[in-house]
Amino acid sequence: MQAKQAPFQSTVIDQIIVEAEKNKFIDIVWLYGSQAKGLASKESDYDLAVALSNEAKAGEIESLVEDISYHWTEKLEREISVVNINKIPVPLAYSVITDGEVIFCDDNLRLHTEESRIWALWESYRYEFTRK
Known about the structure:
This protein is α+β, with helices and mostly antiparallel strands. The chain has a single domain, classed as Beta Polymerase, domain 2. The chain has 5 helices and 4 strands, in the order αβαβαβαβα. The chain has helices spanning 7-22, 34-37, 61-76, 90-99, 108-131; strands spanning 26-32, 46-52, 80-84, 101-105. β2 (46-52), α3 and β3 (80-84) form a beta-alpha-beta unit. It is globular and about 45 Å long.
């Protein structure tokens, strides 16, 4: 899904991409929510999901995601919300990969692996949900 970007939006997204390229722990960044859907106002926040590389230590992942959110918000002077794609509820993860937009990808194999994993989880979730 490729939403039409407002000039302010493309500048912020370009800055996010630059920051992602500098961070050795980030493999993929998805933009989702109102910014990805083209429904954002100039004041809207940026909702991002990230897939972190295997270099990120398991015990440090959540603090790393929080640090990314904090530092990007400070540096870009925009509200940036970052979630770990592997730790969010299945419906949200599914929405990220189907309605969102990949704005940075350092590992195409990882992208396809994450999408396949989330699609499988979604099918299982849907099956369980419709049985009830």
